[in-house]
Design brief:
Blueprint: H1 2-11, H2 15-25, E1 32-34, E2 47-48, E3 57-58, E4 61-63, H3 70-82
Antiparallel strand pairs: 1-4, 2-3
Length: 95
């Protein structure tokens, strides 16, 4: 419930305030990881993004913590966003 309330507050906050909030709370250099999760029928898991206005649906993912590896971040983000645990992680690319 608190997460939903924070999401509503964040989405309704002016863009310049959100940008400064991110700049103050995130390191200057940020790296993100995303996951394309497919089931046995080839369907892809999409989540409704509530913290980025207008972005709609997308793959699960988020920022890497300091010293965290991309595969660890994908596992953590998926667990935080959906409660699911991955059996296997295959790194597609790093940029």
């Amino acid at each position: 419930m608190l997460k939903r309330l924070l999401a509503v507050v964040w989405v309704n906050t002016p863009g310049f305030v959100r940008r400064w909030g991110v700049r103050l709370t995130q390191p200057r250099f940020t790296v993100t990881a995303g996951a394309v999760i497919r089931d046995e029928r080839g369907r892809v898991l999409l989540l409704r993004h509530v913290f980025r206005r207008g972005s709609g649906w997308g793959i699960p993912g988020g920022f890497l913590a300091s010293g965290e590896q991309p595969d660890e971040a994908v596992r953590r983000e998926l667990r935080e966003e959906t409660g699911l645990a991955l059996e296997e992680v295959e790194l597609a690319f790093v940029r």
